[in-house]
């Protein structure tokens, strides 16, 4: 697999189009921000456990690996067997083709017509383009085009893993998380939203930066957009007090939900921008507005986010 290195000033990112168009590494100066897999081949075994996996056509879980859309039931492959769910789509498992590249940017495409087997998994033809650009931060933009003849349901997300702590001599417990959220999606035992939002409280009150401590997370939040040049910009920050550095994610308004994932057995925190809540397809079928989008034939959806270092 070819590793494409993007460089601008003191920043460097490594993108692997053949590995789900994943970003394996993003470095700003001497600071390695993204917690990537040890090597590209590790991606084959675990396509969404390091780097920045691309989550499409659904981010997070679809309960029972099935959903109903416009009166018809669709079944998906179960790739979370412990809970019987489908998780994170299939884009992160497929090779993308490079469309254009330069010293600090690359565009790659996943065209469903390149993979005839996808029609049995996802009966809506599509083209997904991912742009990466480095320089004063790392930017990712997705363009999704419905190339078929039927309206397509979808959600898009990304799963950036960050080192926690950023400072190798720091401590996980001291890391702080801040999220411009307005509510939380409570989850059942299978990590599926129950469908009724809850106010933020306890460890989920992240509107003010909160130390990670011994807490763990695998939780979904409805975001409250703040202003960015007059436009909505959902935002989250992971702060390392020992370095007085914050890793900040700012997303386009389409990213209405963020997931925070901080496992107990791995020195990482993932802050994941999503265009919808987990299990949005099934929530929509129940009449719950959870961000599922519908794309008409020939239409294109476009949205992106950026990762940059800032002061706390």
Strand count: 28
Named CATH architecture: Distorted Sandwich
The tally of structural domains comes to 1
In terms of DSSP E residues, the strand content is: 35-45%
Largest sheet: 9 strands, antiparallel
Q: What is the CATH class? A: Mainly Beta
By secondary-structure content and strand pairing, the structural class works out as mainly beta
> Helix fraction?
under 10%
Record the strand order, biggest sheet. Answer: 10-11-12-13-28-24-23-17-19
The outline comes out as globular
**Computed CA radius of gyration, to the nearest angstrom:** 18 Å
- The third-level CATH topology is Beta-galactosidase, Chain A, domain 5
Total of helices: 2
Uncertain residue segments: none
Order of helices and strands: EEEEHEEEEEEEEEEEEEEEEEEEEEEHEE
Mean pLDDT comes to 94
Distance from N terminus to C terminus (CA atoms, Å) equals 37 Å
Summarize, please:
The chain has helices spanning 42-45, 280-285; strands at residues 4-8, 11-16, 22-28, 31-32, 54-55, 61-62, 66-69, 72-75, 86-87, 97-101, 105-111, 126-134, 138-146, 152-154, 157-158, 161-163, 176-179, 181-185, 210-211, 217-223, 226-228, 231-233, 235-240, 245-251, 257-262, 268-274, 293-295, 300-310. It has 312 residues and is mainly β. The chain has a single domain (4-310), classed as Distorted Sandwich (Beta-galactosidase, Chain A, domain 5).
Name the features.
nine-stranded antiparallel beta sheet, 28 strands, Beta-galactosidase, Chain A, domain 5, globular, mainly beta, 2 helices
